[in-house]
Design a protein that fits this description.
By secondary structure, the chain is mostly helical. It has ten helices and no strands. The protein has helices at residues 10-19, 24-39, 46-61, 74-78, 80-94, 102-122, 131-142, 147-150, 163-175, 183-196. Helix 3 (46-61) runs antiparallel to helix 5. The radius of gyration is 16 Å and the shape is globular. The protein starts with 9 loop residues before the first helix and ends with a helix.
């Protein structure tokens, strides 16, 4: 199983290179995250989104019949410990579809983030991804322009998570729109931050 750069959000690619080069389960989890955000969110069509998620859920529960496009999920599915949480993660994600109710959206996304981090912890990694970063990642990858509505609610605390995530959050919030983030500028800012430490 080889996960290509195009299968991942670029911040996740950096994290894999820093921390998870040998951890196929976390690589598979990051692939799933990108797949969910990119493919299984259908703007303004919750019913269609739920049908697509039902198909994914069925694929995960029957790994011997898994679609070729999902073969990169095998490390997550084949591990008994992570499979249980994987099904919970898909269930959590199915509730992330109502952007108009900000409080409920954040609450359901925090639940998704908590399950996501539990899967990482099951692989004996001491790493947590922040729910703020995941929401930003979600809006960016799915091209849903809702971040302005959430800006005042998110990022109130100065809680520090992974440096790659913190730099992306700071960089994105300066622009606070969905124009393509320059990977070169992001990497330059990340490098400056790493040198400061």
């Amino acid at each position: 199983m080889t996960i290509n750069s195009r299968d991942l959000f670029f911040v996740r690619k950096i994290q894999i290179n820093f921390y998870f080069k040998k951890n196929k389960i976390v690589q598979s989890l990051f692939f799933l995250e990108n797949l969910l955000f990119k493919t299984f969110v259908v703007k303004n069509e919750v019913f269609l989104s739920n049908i697509k998620l039902k198909w994914l859920f069925d694929q995960v529960t029957k790994p011997e019949e898994i679609d070729k496009s999902l073969s990169k999920l095998k490390p997550l599915i084949d591990n008994k410990k992570t499979k249980k949480y994987l099904l919970n993660l898909l269930q959590d994600f199915s509730n992330v579809n109502n952007f108009s109710d900000k409080e409920n959206f954040i609450k359901t996304f925090k639940k998704f983030n908590s399950t996501f981090n539990k899967i990482i912890n099951l692989t004996n990694e001491k790493f947590s991804t922040s729910w703020e970063f995941q929401i930003l990642n979600f809006f960016y990858v799915s091209k849903i322009n809702e971040i302005q509505k959430y800006r005042k609610i998110l990022f109130k605390t100065k809680k520090k998570f992974d440096v790659a995530e913190n730099v992306f959050i700071a960089f994105f919030l300066k622009k606070c729109n969905l124009t393509k983030v320059s990977k070169f500028q992001y990497l330059f800012k990340l490098l400056k931050e790493l040198i400061k430490r």
